[in-house]
């Protein structure tokens, strides 16, 4: 079975429709996913989904870069992370200078606070980074040097779209790299080069649903049932059977998110 390591369930469905989304995933061979927060509403939805479907969903909660410079509530996040429903990761969080370079300083402050949350709770980070390679690497290096815990549970750079050089630096920090439906796009040749070089033990796959539906489903709302298409493209690039990508990415996700 496949593991979708990054899905915004609140963007796909309301609570009433969630069983159907998860059933379609199961029918497609996808039985585990990480429900991503990043917003107040998304955090609550992810926790509720994990509580309702504990065999199929775990939650990641945090504040993403859009909260930079706003009056975000760290106490509320602390309560979620300390609550009865286990949280698998802090996120999504990180830096995006492509759309919001004007808030770079505030983004870095927020990212540092999310790193602190992750360190205090012994959780990995789910990281977004766009056009912010140097600052992302610097902040993660600081986090890595100050935290305690297993080196292979620092976190994952999700929906990777960067260069081979950026990927190599992340791997030096023991980060996982997750590939989304973008790797299936015709104009993603450079990303497929990255897909070919990621070591087996550091590769994850995701949908980032409801965004970025893979070929041949582009233009449709994305959902966890479509993650096998991501695996198939990666398998082709790496010249291995798709079952190998399915199994190793599942093992990696189970290890990162401590889901046993």
Average pLDDT figure? 96
Structural class, judged by helices and strands? alpha/beta
Task: Give the CATH class.
Answer: Alpha Beta
Q: How can the largest sheet be summarized?
A: 8 strands, parallel
CATH homologous superfamily name?
Metal-dependent hydrolases
Write the layout of secondary structure elements.
Layout: E1 2-7, H1 9-12, H2 18-27, E2 30-38, H3 40-52, E3 57-63, H4 74-81, E4 87-96, H5 97-100, H6 104-121, E5 125-130, H7 133-146, E6 155-157, H8 164-172, E7 176-179, H9 189-197, E8 203-205, H10 227-238, H11 242-256
Parallel strand pairs: 1-2, 2-3, 3-4, 4-5, 5-6, 6-7, 7-8
Helix pairs in contact: 6-7, 10-11
Features:
260 residues, alpha/beta, TIM Barrel, eight-stranded parallel beta sheet, 11 helices
Please provide a written account of the structure.
There is one protein chain. This protein is α/β, with parallel strands linked by helices and 260 residues long. Helix 6 (104-121) packs parallel to helix 7 and helix 10 packs across helix 11. The protein has one domain (2-256): Alpha-Beta Barrel (TIM Barrel), CATH 3.20.20. The mean pLDDT is 96. The chain is 45% helix and 18% strand. It has an 8-stranded parallel sheet. Strand 2, helix 3 and strand 3 (57-63) form a beta-alpha-beta unit.
